[in-house]
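Troubleshooting entry. The earlier prediction with adenosine-5'-triphosphate gave an output that would not parse, so I re-checked the input for stray whitespace and re-submitted. Clean input:
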Amino acid sequence: MSVKVVDLCHTYGENSIFEFKALNNINFEVKSGELIGIIGHTGSGKSTLIQHINRLLTPTSGEIYLDELNINEKGILMKDICSKVGLVFQYPEYQLFEETVYKDIAFGPKNIGMEDIDGSVKKSMAMVGLDFETYKDKSPFELSGGQKRRVAIAGVIAMDPDILILDEPASGLDPVGRKEILDNIYKLHKDNNLTTFLVSHSMTDVCEYASKIMVYSHGELKLFDESKEVFKEVELLKEIGLSIPEGKELMLKLKEKGLDANTDLFTFEDVVKEIDNLI
Ligand SMILES: Nc1ncnc2c1ncn2[C@@H]1O[C@H](COP(=O)(O)OP(=O)(O)OP(=O)(O)O)[C@@H](O)[C@H]1O
């Protein structure tokens, strides 16, 4: 499913002394099946943006289209949007509340009136790499941080969305847990052709996975391009207060030291290969 955002503005507390413009004239188009990284400093508007894509917020002005559907048009039910757009909030494990993993994952599908609840729980658990028999009767609260997060993601996937949005899915996990969850999300996206938005503070996290990256600063979309093009804008990114991926940083340092390093590289794998070539 494609997403088109046209002239989107969002002002919190309009016409009050707390008025704050969180998004200013945002325009972009994302094709069906793309994985988009959304990067920006704290308070740049990332969460505000993603809440518009599943209509949790109403634009102050502007439009959002999912394929041809203008989601804020009169008569469109919230239920219809929820079944198309799955939003996984930051630290989703804090929103787990049922006594078993099965019940927690089944909650969403039941709520939107899906028929084969059992089938969708089984399928979504398999998709996030949780064995059904091992985990279905466990309490979500006895699981590790990474496993809890998988349960929370399975609860959203179980509603069979066309678009998946994840707000900082790797935050608070150790390096192994981060890689596991991000690899799993990437696989979900690829296997199901899910249009996916990955919100992060970390360039290093998103650069390995995203086909394109959006960079937000103070409510404005500053860059939206393929990763390697975005990472060429080193000065602008530093000005905004964002670090470039560690791999690219290393390549730039090697170049400074006089080595013929390819500074267009940024993923861990590519950088390791390049270092092998250089030494
Ligand atoms: N409900 C609200 N009322 C008033 N201002 C808000 C509200 N929610 C967010 N803001 C403000 O809007 C701006 C954008 O917030 P938003 O949460 O979208 O940023 P963010 O990029 O997601 O930040 P973070 O990375 O810290 O989650 C911030 O300055 C924030 O303080």
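This one parsed fine. Residues 175-192 form the longest helix (18 residues).
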